Amino acid sequence: MKSYRSELLGLFGCPVDENPTVVIIEAAFKALGLDYRYNTTLVQPEDLEVAVKALKAFNMKGTHITLPHKIEVLKYLDVVADDAKLMGAVNTIYLKDGKTYGENTDGKGFIISLEQGSVEMKGKKVVVLGAGGVARSITVELAGQGVEEITVVNIERTMGENLVTLLNENTDTNANFIFWDETYNVPSDTDILVNATSVGLYPDTNKANINYETLTEKMIVCDVIPNPPQTAFLDEAKKVGCKTFDGFSMLINQGAISFKFWTGQEAPIDVMRTALLNEFGLE
Ligand code: NDP
After folding, report:
1. Whose CB among 7, 54, 182, 184 lies 3.0–4.6 Å from 210's, allowing a Cys bridge?
2. Structural contact between residues 141 and 114, judged by C-beta atoms closer than 8 angstroms
3. Active-site entry in 70, 108, 124, 207
4. What is the Å distance from ligand 1's center to 132 Cα?
């Protein structure tokens, strides 16, 4: 018998209108011939609890969660993955056997990008600029990969110190905090440098306040900013000859992990990448 019902997925955020994730997820459904719909949904903070309950009421497969709900949403879920609990943030919900499960795929998407580029993480020294949600997710995952040292550099002291305490108390990495009140000189023994701030996101083309003359060719330099994929921060690193990783790949990879939670199928990453490049009018 023909079914006229599509499986439902979504993205809950506020504001959410400019988030392009629908483009990559819908392209993946189409490529795999799945009758699924992904709806970008404006959910006000005061409506988050009822929106999460609606996932069950509408028999949805799950949803992405974005700002400002990533932290708040934890208290409305039946089960939260251990690493997401540690990060204190969830960006993906899936439903199974009538229960809601919370996961965080941001840092996992970042790690996959480095793995795709054959970057060894074990025993490395990492500097992370920023201490917000994405920095938390990335640093917890990097610690899980066995990096030796993580230096968190942040313009606000409490957030940075809290993240360092979280890493030192719950992981085997050695974390330390640098208060970012002036141009930051990247230590010469840094293996991996990550911009996990929001600096550089379209339409703001600024770059993080570091001394770019302290970058050296052997450093791996990463940016979480997905749009534009080639940020001014990465431009500077490329000039020095560093291997670079952009936020565009991270975005595709985190979406692919969420996709698997929802559909049980491997996501067609190349299709998703092409769809997003087309959307942004890029090659
Ligand atoms: P948050 O607001 O939680 O954190 C932003 C961080 O940037 C904070 O540490 C903040 O400092 C810092 N910051 C803001 N302005 C400046 C500045 N001028 N100089 C230095 N530091 C600054 O955001 P998220 O962590 O959730 O997101 C960060 C970025 O990651 C966003 O631009 C988003 O687009 C991108 N992102 C990318 C994804 C991907 O898959 N590629 C996935 C999700 C997000 P303070 O502590 O003072 O607030």
Report:
1. 184
2. no
3. 70
4. 6
Q: What is the pLDDT of residues 41-85, one digit of tens each?
A: 999 999 999 999 999 999 999 999 999 999 999 999 999 999 999
Q: Which of 127, 136, 197, 227 maximizes ligand 1 atoms within 8 Å of its Cβ, making it the mutation to test the pocket?
A: 197
CB within 6 Å of ligand 1 — which residues? 67, 106, 109, 130-135, 154-156, 159, 197-199, 201, 224-226, 247, 250-251, 254
**What one-letter code names the amino acid at 223?**
D
Atom of ligand 1 nearest to the CA of 200: 32
Distance between Cα 129 and ligand 1 center (Å) = 9
Let me know if 70 is a catalytic residue: yes
